[in-house]
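User: Can you write out an input/output pair for a complex, sequences first and structure second?

Assistant: Here is one pair. Inputs:
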Amino acid sequence: MWSCSPAKNEDMNKFSLFVVTAAAALALPALAAGQAAPTGNVANGKRLFEKQNCYYCHGTGGQGGRDGARIAATALNVQALIRYVRQPTGGMPAFTDKIISDQELTDIYAYLKSLPAAKAPKDIPLLDQLREK
Amino acid sequence: MATSKKGSVNRRGFLKGAAVGAAALVAKPTVQAQNAPARQAAQLPSAALVAAETSPPPPRTDVYTTDRPGSDFMVDVIKSLGFEYVAANPGSTFRALHESIINYGGNKAPELLTCCHEESSVAMAHGYAKIEGKPIMVMAHGTVGLQHASMAIYNAYADRVPVYIVIGNVADGPWRRSDVEWTHAVQDAALIVRDYTKWDDSPISLTQFAESAVRAYKIATTPPMGPVVVVADAVLQEEPVSQDDRRRLRVPKLSASGPPAGDSGAVAEVARMLVAAENPLIVSGRSARTPNGLKLLVELAELLQAPVLDRRQRMNFPTRHPLYGTGNLANADLVLGLEVPDFWNVTHAQTPLNRMGMEVRPLTKQGAKIVTISSLDLLTKSNYQDFGRYNEVDLAIAADAEATMPPLIEACRRLITADRKRVFDARGARFAEAAKRIREQDLQEAAWAWDASPITTARVSAELWNQIKNEDWSLVSDVVFQSWWPTRLWDFTKHYQFIGGHGAYGIGYGAPAAVGAALANKKYGRLTVNIQSDGDLNYAPGVLWTAAHHHIPLLSIMHNNRSYHQERMFVADMAARAQRDVSRVGIGNDISNPNIDYATMAKAYGMYGAGPIENPNDLGPAIKKAIEVVKRGEPALVDVVMQPR
């Protein structure tokens, strides 16, 4: 009959996103020299991104929104992403390996990395007209 | 005016007479038998006599008419209050008032709006009041109608919006005509909504009705505003009023109360704190009741060069102002909350959000002072908990923020020295730079998934803005489900350009409130825009017909994410927490299989419909075409398959 979470304003959202991203990155050990980064399957990652409903909060293009950070072209490395999914610090629930394995998260990571980067606003006429000139 | 012969028979008299007549008919055969003459020689009766003696007696015919029902006087009272419209789904308990409005009142001021659900009637009144600043009237059954209306009334109460509701009821049992009237009758009609209305009354005379009706208007429109209920007893409505009685009845003058302003000593103290603060932050909830409230908040913010954190519950502050959204609770040494519902939830964080019994931490730094000016402190009830968690503040002024603003601004002005002015100017320059950075960041974020399908809420907002930016537009839906993209991209400057949201998050508000707001905008020639959630529309889609029937120009862009998405996320949270299958949470939440065809739905209700639009490149032309329809004075709907948020 009703619905809505007690959303904070978007400014606070941005602040939280920054803190979450920075904290996750700092908390992770760097890869040892010469250690190969795990590789993922992009197609399977896309399938899992949809099946596990990641897009509910992050959007089908990983663009983010009110309820989740932008994760397309994430600056995190794969271990940082996995660590954050296991132990999130914001509003996101923890996804344990009972729900999704490290390999599956690696596939999702590969999918996120495969998403096209956004154009610059100046190259999109509808956004360009909104820029202060 | 002479007393009508017809009007001289009232219903009580008729019923009494009918009972006596029936008793006489029953008794008659016995009397005839006792007085029968002795049998004489056979004489055949004529056919006419046979017919007269053997046919059943003709039924008694009563003509029940009147020239002056009490409901006419009720209309005199209602007209004195200046309602433009009365929204109603028809109901027998107010049939006389209904008839008086359309015939005696000429269906003008107020004009009857045909609604398909009482929830729609109230939500339309809710939306109208937020644009126009005054209520329209709603009529409903005292029982089943008010039950339908109740959630919308709660929304209006929590949003502190004046909604004026007249309900019908047959209070006196013997006057009820049928089992229907018994099941539609109630001892205390307003009881079911008393927890979330500001006032109600059940008058038992026309004199009391007049006073209660005027009093109700005064109470509803005095801040803190809220819904009121007046019961129009059906007997009072239907019984005639003699000429002599009518002369004795009078319509009381409405004596509007001014909004309560803050105590001068407390206002002076707030001014001292604001001027002395190094990083003051203003948090606005519903601070701008009127266009002047918007101007006053700009004046205060600019005077202090203090940023405004807008909760977007009214059009409080221009969205491209350098002080809009540039502040931060964590940096503030003074937080001024203006008409902010659940202010505790603004100044605190609860973590983790997906757990009950959460840990709490303040978002303000240690030593930061918190001050509130709010009429919410003047209207707190017990049962429904919309008041939120108790907030420990340093100074609370129980008053209307807008009414308190002029003395506060003056008090600040008197305290600002040249030194403080230099500090403020430097502060303002920093916020202006921050505003530019935020704007660039917003535009960059909007570009992500620009060509995606389902279409992003950012893309939809940008496409809409491109079509309306040169119009006199008014957005009458909330922006929270679109990740706030309209307020991040559009240039909101006028009070009617934004009206906030539900009040109590009761879904089903969106579509009817938009229709009501569009109705208020109609006479000003504004282009009214509604970004319409799919789940919301399905509660009472008949309001689309109301918009078409009454030629209410409204552009609705369907935010069709084919789900009750908020609930879907909540259940996903629970599944993840329980370490179970997250992929199944669409069960009970998705609105798909089959997908609802909203363009066809719109057409079925007699209005323009287009879509579903799935290719973002088709969106601009579709919106443009729909706007052409709206400019001709009709509603139009464009179904857009959109990202969840």
